[in-house]
Amino acid sequence: MTATIINGKEIASQKKVEIAIEVQKLKELGITPGLAVILVGDNHASRTYVTNKEKTCRDLGMYSVLIELPEETSQEDLLAKIEELNGDPAIHGILVQLPLPKHISESKVIESISPLKDVDGFHPINIGRMMTGQDSFLPCTPFGIMVLLEATEISVAGKHVVVVGRSNIVGKPVGQLFLNQHATVTYCHSRTKDLQFHTSQADIIVAAVGIANFIKADHVKEGAVVIDVGINRNEAGKLCGDVAFDEVSKKAGYITPVPKGVGPMTITMLMYNTLKSAKNTLRF
To answer: Which of 30, 51, 27, 29 is nearest to 39 (CA)?
Structure first.
């Protein structure tokens, strides 16, 4: 068997066209969706992500603001800037690029963002609403995974999903999204005994451990759907995922590549959430 490739870049492009159309409709009503991104310090990877987000905003006709703060910025000053953005009617989404300098509490920063502008989907109120199946801003990478499966017409109801990884950003929320769609979910992590026993039973595997080529062919049953969230560098410095693509793709039914798999969906769903926040203002 050779797996069908789930082309995240192609699906993301299709979704962006839909978003751009909706943005134009809103602009005709006098509302331009606005996203503010705060970057503290000069982390190279973070700067790359922020640049991509800015470009995508512009491409879709959205308003984008980048606020760059020095590494030594105090937590108090950062919280004050967030509070200012919370009250700015031109800003519909606020994103603070992680990681933050060690002297700043990520949890306090996330909780300071208005849940109505929390387009990253990390605020405890949005997480709680997601957990209870209510309308909320969904975390972008998990949301993107669900959209990929929907676009590929892969049903998840009744399927056994094994999530390898338990981060607050991907592992935990993606499992909940599958549960919300009536899947049976197993979480595995660094202390799970006999990982292969669990993954080899999965209809769908989500690999989000941050270890290059961690999931091998013997972890996967024939025909399974394999979603690779990892972004790593192998020993040769080449970009790769958490899944050993060459061997697993010969056994899986569907698989996401790295790059051009899950990655493009993350920024796309951030744009979707920002659009949704702007549309929500029509209710008030």
So the answer is: 51
Which amino acids are annotated catalytic?
Answer: 53, 97, 120
Instruction: Look at the alpha carbons of 215, 217, 220, 226 in this order and tell me if their dihedral is positive or negative.
Output: positive
Q: Specify the pLDDT at position 284.
A: 61
One domain, residues 189 and 226? yes
Residue with tokens 């990982």: 195
259 plus 144 within the same structural domain: yes
User: pLDDT by residue (tens digit) across 128-182?
Assistant: 999 999 999 999 999 999 999 999 999 999 999 999 999 999 999 999 999 999 9
CB contact at 8 A, 173 and 215:
no
Using only C-alpha atoms, the chain has a radius of gyration, in whole angstroms, of 19
Closest CA to 210 of 181, 185, 236, 189: 189
Question: 258 with 171, same domain?
Answer: yes
Among 9, 6, 7, which residue's Cα sits nearest to residue 267?
A: 9
What is the pTM for the complete model shown? 0.96
Task: Report d(CA 215, CA 220) in Å as an integer.
Answer: 8
Q: 143 and 253: one domain?
A: yes
Q: Are 26 and 32 in contact (CB under 8 A)?
A: yes
The verdict on 101 and 151 lying in the same domain is no
Torsional sign, CA 96, 99, 102, 105: positive
Report which secondary-structure segment, H or E, holds 38.
strand 34-40
